[in-house]
Every structure is written in structure tokens, then in C-alpha cells.
Amino acid sequence: MSIIRSLIVPGWTRILPGVLLCVVFAFVVMNIDHMLHRYYKADVASTKIPDLKRRLALATAAGKTKAAVKLSKSLRKHQKALKKAGGKVGQSWNWATFLYQKAQFKYVAMLLIGGILIRNIFGIPEIFKPGVAVGRPLIKPGIIILGVHYIWSDVLRVGGTGILLAAVFIFGTATAVMWLCRRSGVPDGLGGIMGAGTGVCGVSAIIATSPVVGAKPRDMAYAIGTILLFGTAMLFVMPYLGQALGISQSQFGTWAALAILNTAQLIAAAEWYGDEARNTAVLINAARIMLIPLIVVFAVWFYGLKGKGQDIGFWSTMAKKFPVFILGFFVLILLNSLHLDALGGPKTAGTPFWAMNAVYKWFFAIGFAGIGLSISIDDMKKAGGVAFLIGSGAAMTKMILGLIAVLIIGRELMRVTGGQ
Amino acid sequence: MLAAQLDSEIVGLHVRDPYLKQFQTEIYAQGRLEYLDHVDQCLASDAEEATSAFGILATGANVRWRVKTLDGEPIEQITREAETGDYALLILGRRPRKGFAAWRSRDLPGKILAAVSVPPIMLVPADGI
Is residue B24 within 8 angstroms of chain A, CB to CB? Predict the structure, then answer.
């Protein structure tokens, strides 16, 4: 009985309504996303089928068997898509193509924009708030499961390059911000949290660093507001900017992982851009968040905080601030790399890894519902003071330098293959 | 001055706003307990500072005083305290803001003013009118 009791989260009744709200919101949006996707596919099929039929007839008449087989396969696929929507050739669903393809109005956008609108126009009743806050970290199990998309060569190539890039960006930003703050007479507490926040992963890094550097509440509110403001702005701007610039999925994933100030927004932007972008971004981000304890150690060293009565030694900081859950992600990568028949793969139907792959999007959807419903304009209004100046400078610099870096690196190096 | 002339006690309300605690659920937040402890310590020390500053001002003006510390959302707490406590007068301070600054401001005194039935006095800085 005590074992069962220990498995229950204390105060679970308080968080249940909010978590359920996130689940229901995610369920509704995922169904709208499926519907949009179905009509978009049907619209494409309706346009393509006559042309495919004509080309198939020509290929058959010319005796080009290989081409005919290929065209026939493609024709069947499109006919199936049309049938799913219950439509006929010549019918059009332009609105679905516009929303799904041109406006990129996919489940990520619906959850985030919908969540922001609900939160800021109608408000969220108090009873839902604790659970909505808990919804966000539900992205973590999704990230662990994503481990089945990688093999060790991906980790070494993409993760290795990514961690080098991330380290340069993280410590470059942190050093520049902390140094500039010190030169401008900004208090160490604010300089420390802004260095860590703009360097690593936004609010998560501020939470890890603020007790160590002794940040004041007013400064923390400024810093968190600023990070949320720029993280949210980048979340909505970067995917469209990436499309306009024509950068590839893997390049966008790398760019997002280097430039977007806050983690939640980083994952959302990459998932929005596409599966390959998300795979690259999540891997680099996994490498990046392992640097959280090091940025705390760096802040301790930079501000000479050792020996001021706090337990901030190297190993104790590493142990206290290390994101343990990320080990689960690497264990799954290891298991996927072993190609064990019993576990199968994400694309082998009916296997454990296939089943895990089928549920990760649900964790993401619930997490994104939590993120959208938590983005409050009132929080972002708190952005101000020196923190705003530092945040805007760091955000713009990282965005431009990150873009230059991914353009130099090219499309292939950061592409996750997953063994395919 | 008013309190001294009427020989009334003046009660300072200080609210410990747990606003920052909500961010502990950030996806990759590490050291959550340490963070919460830090926020609690900061709130406690701010309360002490506010009490002592209020005490110095009130004592200097020769007024009987005490400070009541509340926990929660400031507008909600002050409104509830003003309505349920036995207060004859509510004294608020307000710095008038325009444009973007007004949009950013939570306008705490304005919201309290709209919600309470206790007679209020709004103090505005001399340069603020």
C-alpha cells in the first residue's frame, strides 16, 4: 500500500483539472489537424490524378513498364487520399491547402495560438492553473521517446557538431552578457541570470542560476519576462523566416537550437517546421541542456562566489543541476542503435518502438497545450529595464550569427538519419 | 500627519507575491527546491525591509503603527483585507502613467479602488499630476 501511495503525486487533485484541460484541448486540436491534413491531401490528389492517369496511359502505350508501375503506385496513393475525404476528381479544398501548406497552420500553431488567445482573452479559471503549469513538462516523456529516432552515428555527428556549436554560442553569449553587465554597473544577480538565460535555455537556466548568484525578485521578473517575450516572438517569426529564406529542415533545427532563447518555444518552433527540423533541434538541445550545470559553475567562477557560505562546488553543482531525464533519451538511442528484433523500429509496425513513436506526438500536443495556455501577455509586460536591453541585444545577435553558422555548415552535416 | 492628528493607528499592508514560483514548472528547470527556497528567502527579506522602512517613517511622524504581511496575489489580498478588516480609511499611492507605460502597468491602486468600499485617499507624487 505504501508503495502505491508513494507513486501518487502529492496534491494530484489540485493539478488534475488543468491536466485534463490540456488533454482535452490537445485531443480537439489533433483531430482538427488530422482533418485539415486529410482535406489537404485530397486537394493535392484531386489536382494530380488526371495528370497521373494521362502519364500512366502514355507510359503503358510506350511500354515503359518501370515508369508505369511507379505511376500506378502514385495514382493509387492519391486515389486513396481522395477516397478518405469522400471526394471526387475535380473537387477542390483550397482552404485546406492554404491553411495546412501555405499558412503552416498545423497542430503546433493551433495549440500555441489557441492557447495564447484563450489565456489572454477569456482567462483561465484558478482551478485549472496548477495543472496547466504541469502540462508543459509533459514534453519530457515525448523527448525521451524521440530517442528511437536516432542512432549513435547521429549523436556523434549531429550531437557532436551541435554541442561544439552550442558550447561556443552558450559560453560566448554568457561571457559577453556578464562582462557587459559588469562594465555597465548592472548588479551581479541580474547579470548572472541574464548571462545564463540568454546563453543556455532561458527560464530553465534562470531557475538554476538565480539562487546561486542571489538574483533579486524584481530582476528575476524582468529577466523571465524578457526571455518569454523574445522566445515567443522568435517562435512565431523564425519558422516563417526560415521558409522565406528557403533553409532546409536540418538547418532550421540547428538554427532554432542555437538562437531561440527559451526551450519550450525552441521545441515548438522546430516541431512546427517539420519532423527533420525537430529531430535535429531535439538532439542539439539535449546536448545543450546538459551544459546547464556548467553555466552555473561558470557564473560561480565569473562572479567569484565560491566560499560565500553556499554549497556551490563543481561536483555538487553538477549533481544538483544535471537534467537526469535526458539519460532516458540516450538509453533509447543506445537500444535503437543495437537494432534488437524484440524492440523493432519506429517504422516497423507492431513493435514496441513503433508503439512508442505513435504516442510521442500526444505528449508533445499536451505539452504544447500547456505552453500555449501558460503564455501570458501580463508576464511578458514585465520585460523591461536593463534586462530588456540585454535580452534584445542577445536575441538579435544569436539569431543573425546562428543563421550565418547554419548557412556555412550546409544541409547535410546536421541531418538526422535514424539509420535510414 | 492625518493619523497623528486623529491619534489613529496606521497599518501597513505588505503582500508576499508568489508570482515567481510558477516558473519552477519550466520544462528543463533544475534545482527547483533550491529556487523555491531562494524566492521564499527574497520575499521574507523584502517584507522585513518594507516593515522596517515603514516603521522608520511612521515613528518619525509620531504615529502608532504596525505592519501586516499577507501572502498571495496582491490585488486580491489587499482588497480582501480592506473589506474584512476594521479600517476607516484606505491610503493608496499611484504614479500616473500614459501610453505604453500605462498598458504595461497592472494598475494595482486603480483595481483596488474599484473593488473596495472603504473610503480611500489616493496619494499622487507632486511631479505626477
Answer: yes
B17, B21, B26: best to mutate for the A interface, most A CBs within 10 A:
B26
User: How far B104 CA sits from the closest chain A CA (Å)?
Assistant: 5
Summarize pLDDT for A297-314 with one digit per residue, the tens.
888 888 877 655 566 677
Closest Cα of chain A to B55: distance in Å? 23
Nearest CB to A204; choose among B30, B38, B106: B30
What's the pLDDT score for residue A3?
65
Length in residues, chain A: 420
User: A333 and A151 in contact (C-beta within 8 Å)?
Assistant: yes
Which distant-in-sequence residues (6+ apart) come within 8 Å of A376 by Cβ? A119, A120
Distance from CA of B83 to the nearest CA of A (A): 21
Buried b (16+ CB within 10 A) or exposed e, B5-44: eeeeebbbbbbbbebbebbbbbbbbbbeebbbebbeebbe
pTM metric for this prediction = 0.80
H or E segment to which residue B12 belongs: strand B9-16
- ipTM value > 0.90: no
Question: To 5 degrees, how large is the angle CA A327–CA A289–CA A338?
Answer: 35
**Cell (9 digits) for B114:** 474599484
pLDDT in tens, B48-94: 999 999 999 989 888 899 999 999 999 999 999 999 988 989 999 88
Contact B30 A206 (CB under 8 A): no
Question: Is it the case that residue B129 has pLDDT exceeding 50?
Answer: no
* Nearest by Cα to B31 from A222, A277, A321: A321
Grid coordinates belonging to B87: 479600517
Q: Cα A264–A268–A271 angle (5° rounding)?
A: 140
Could you tell me if B104 lies within 8 Å of chain A, comparing CB atoms? yes
Q: Directed axis angle between helix A314-321 and helix A292-302, to 10°?
A: 140
Contacts of B46 in chain A (CB under 8 A): 217
Residue A18, pLDDT > 50, answer yes
Q: Show residues of chain A in contact with B39, CB under 8 Å.
A: 217, 220
B28 touching A (Cβ < 8 Å) = yes
Residue that the C-alpha cell 513538462 belongs to: A137
> Which three cell numbers mark B15?
503582500
Q: For residue A222, what is the enclosing H or E element?
A: helix A217-245
Q: How many CB atoms lie within 10 A of CB A325?
A: 15
User: Directed axis angle between helix A160-183 and helix A292-302, to 10°?
Assistant: 30
Q: Using an 8 Å Cβ cutoff, are A138 and A379 in contact?
A: no
A-B CB pairs within 8 A amount to 79
Residue that wins the pLDDT comparison between A105 and A22: A22
Q: What are phi and psi of B66, to 5 degrees?
A: -155, 160
Distance from C-alpha of A163 to C-alpha of A283, rounded to nearest angstrom:
9
Nearest alpha-carbon partner for B67 in B122, B103, B6, B13? B13
Best to test chain B binding among A207, A218, A228 (most B CBs inside 10 Å)? A207
